[in-house]
Design brief:
170 residues; alpha+beta; 8-stranded mixed β-sheet; 5 helices
Length: 170
């Protein structure tokens, strides 16, 4: 996948991206809404995660970096996952480095991933799951037309939401 937007691009992970992603993964603010919440990642763990997650790059799934066009800086990651073992229902997710929050990049990433899932991968539904306290992602989901379809509690007691959007027939 390669998607270029006005200020950012979403592209495959390259070996040179590991250091930038390590910085992002080791900042607690960046990771507090990610399922594990860990911010003590090693470079080796991140590399292993990318190797495992990106086995299906040829099918359009996996983790990709988000790069700021003007600066060339890696500012986060975006992912498409076959979490439900159904190619018609795909899940998206993203992490943006805190210093880049509030610039609309989350909405741009989310909309681009939704469009890619529908128009390139042939999905009928796209899902995003987040902790209820992640108000930024809640707003992004709603701005991109996703609807809240579930509220629940994780086994460790955290409230979460599930948002979905279905492909509209033309």
């Amino acid at each position: 996948m390669y998607i270029e937007l006005p200020e950012i691009r979403i592209r495959k992970v390259l070996p040179d991206d590991l250091d930038a992603m390590h910085v992002i993964y080791t900042q607690p603010d960046n990771m507090k809404f990610i399922s594990s919440g860990r911010s003590d990642w090693t470079r080796e763990e991140i590399l292993k995660k990318y190797e495992e997650s990106n086995r299906n790059y040829d099918r359009g799934f996996g983790l990709y970096v988000v790069e700021h066009l003007l600066s060339g800086q890696v500012i986060g990651e975006a992912g498409i996952f076959n979490s439900f073992r159904d190619l018609k229902i795909l899940e998206l997710g993203y992490i943006i480095d805190r210093q880049w929050w509030g610039r609309g990049y989350g909405t741009q990433i989310c909309q681009a991933l939704i469009d890619y899932c529908f128009n390139t991968l042939g999905a009928n539904k796209v899902v995003a799951r987040m902790y209820a306290g992640n108000t930024g992602s809640v707003k992004v989901s709603e701005k991109t037309g996703m609807k809240r379809v579930e509220e629940g509690t994780t086994p460790d007691g955290r409230s979460f939401y599930r948002y979905e959007i279905e492909k509209q027939e033309e």
